[in-house]
Design brief:
heterodimer, A: 130 residues, mainly alpha, 6 helices, flat, B: 72 residues, two-stranded antiparallel ribbon
Chain lengths: 130, 72
């Protein structure tokens, strides 16, 4: 029972549930069966890697909720790198659309605005908290 | 940061998982500390020192220099 409880709360079970949801939503959206299966299959495979690869440190951290200071630290650093990469992608895509003459650069402009506003607010909040 | 965690853990007959559960951290975190891939926070370093009943200076040392622990 304890093992089942830990499975239901960690990323493995979440990935598997999401795989089923994506498969169902894709089919409901009239996507071809092969596409729905591929999309669901990718997440299913990810869930299996998380379940079976826990001896690997990185997989263990990915698969489990934040357990201690080190996993929290790793998650925070990974989030920072991810945010930086996404920022570059958003700005790059925005510039590409402008270069192509697309005067309506949505959704990149909106994404960039949300990204920037969130970052500024976060800096304000966390600087006040110490 | 170099440390004596592995030495003291083995002397106490503990596995990494045992030590981790006693301190509220994962086995992987204990391993990362022992292999010097991770420097613990001050609270965790204090917990480690208290657990092994040694001073922090005896447990951790900077730049490879072992601090003489005259109190021990």
């Amino acid at each position: 029972m304890r093992r089942l409880a830990s499975l239901t709360t960690d990323q493995t079970m979440q990935a598997m549930i999401l795989a089923v949801v994506i498969f169902a939503v894709a089919l409901a959206g009239h996507a071809p069966l092969w596409l729905a299966a591929a999309l669901g299959g990718i997440l299913l495979a990810f869930g299996l890697v998380l379940l079976l690869g826990r001896r690997i440190d990185a997989v263990f951290i990915l698969a489990s909720p934040v357990r201690d200071e080190r996993s929290s630290n790793v998650h925070m650093r990974a989030s920072a790198v991810t945010a930086n990469v996404i920022a570059v992608v958003i700005v790059g895509a925005f510039l590409v659309e402008l270069f192509r003459g697309n005067l309506d650069p949505r959704p990149w402009a909106w994404l960039g605005a949300v990204f920037g506003a969130t970052y500024i607010v976060s800096i304000v909040v966390f600087s006040r908290r110490g | 940061m170099r440390n004596r965690v592995r030495e003291l853990r083995r002397a106490g007959g503990l596995s990494q998982a045992d030590l981790g559960s006693r301190l509220g951290v994962s086995r992987q975190t204990v391993n990362a500390i022992e292999t010097e891939r991770y420097t613990p926070s001050l609270p965790l370093a204090l917990d480690l020192a208290r657990f092994f009943k040694v001073s922090i200076e005896h447990l951790f040392h900077v730049n490879g220099s072992v601090v003489e622990d005259s109190e021990r």
